[in-house]
Description:
It contains six helices and 13 strands. The protein has a domain at 55-89 and 136-278. The protein is 24% helix and 25% strand.
Amino acid sequence: MEFRPTLSILLHALLLFQFLSESRARDIAKDCDNMHGMLKIQEKEQTSISPMESLNPQLNIFFTPKDLNIGKKMPLFFAIKNPSTSPQLLSREEADSIPFSSTNLPYLLEFFSFSKESPQAKAIEDTFFHCEISAMKGESKFCATSLESMLDWAKEILGYNTQLKVYTTDFIKKSPVTLQNYTILQKPKEILAPKIVACHTLPYPYAVFYCHMQKGENKLFKISLLGENGDRIEAAAICHMDTKQWNHDHVAFRVLKVQPGSSPVCHFFPADNLVWVPSSSM
Length: 282
């Protein structure tokens, strides 16, 4: 999915490659193979284009607030990711021992045994683009390479003394079918929160999360969905009520056939994304 959002907070990572053990390097290399498999799956899915849109089926995640009605039916994409083949979440100590910067790209490609022309190299380059480009107006952003760094940044945004609560998309019953029609079963529940930090996974040999907070009115929802294949999902979704500052080329506008500022843009979160709010949010 072509999603190029935008960061002004830098990681304080230690460049200590020499302290990585050989066994840890083998584990990371194994994760690189898993990432290659994930990219192959994505390439295959991109060839299965819906007749109504010459777009990647994975873009069937966008909607508008007008769709938030009981009985509303929408074609939606929800992928199942196997935790055993997903990139590992490193500890802060491990993550800080590996440079995370585009300036180190040649060294990293050699370290992870990727050629410069490989799809993995392109994915890593794109991840650095997301992490290093300047934030949009009104946006704060950060790329977390460990759970500890993610929690630290979420607390910096939401309040250092704030207890955090996390929301995700939960699969109650899920078949291997990724794209199907889903029906909203009951009135969506809005999670009232003064600020919202959303963390999205980025392709990398180990787990990296693009976390951001957008100023302005954003509404978080939990939505009960029933798939035509019998799937049951408790999905997390967010509605960005003001899109005037968004890039005119943002893919959401193509999918929804709207213009920046003309309509709120909502989207569902994949199951491996995390949404952080103060625990007092209802």
